[in-house]
Design brief:
Layout (H helix, E strand, L loop, with lengths): L4 H15 L5 E7 L5 E9 L5 E10 L6 E5 L4 E5 L2 H12 L2 H14 L1
Amino acid sequence: MVRTPKAILQEQGDYLTKATEGVLVGNVDAHKATRAFAYSLNVKVPTLNNYIYTILRIAHEATLYPVRVTADSPSELNECEDEEEFETAIESILGSEEVQLILSRLLSQAS
């Protein structure tokens, strides 16, 4: 069975929530797009008035792939042809110094 890009993002959000014991909550939001499916992976901080930080955004057509992945920090734009490329792009963004610093600072402020 094919895992959808949305499902893969949700797995990452669930992992973040579990890893931080709910201090940071990872969630996936759907966005309106013409002829495409669009989602964002966000981090919500309940103790900071539900502050939300968007880590990355994706968009794809009904065929699922290719999927476009964009992030502001680090500044990235990837066109992923399959699930493996998509997972690699997500790992690169989530493991970046910029995202790790943001998550660390959000954790510090939430405590």
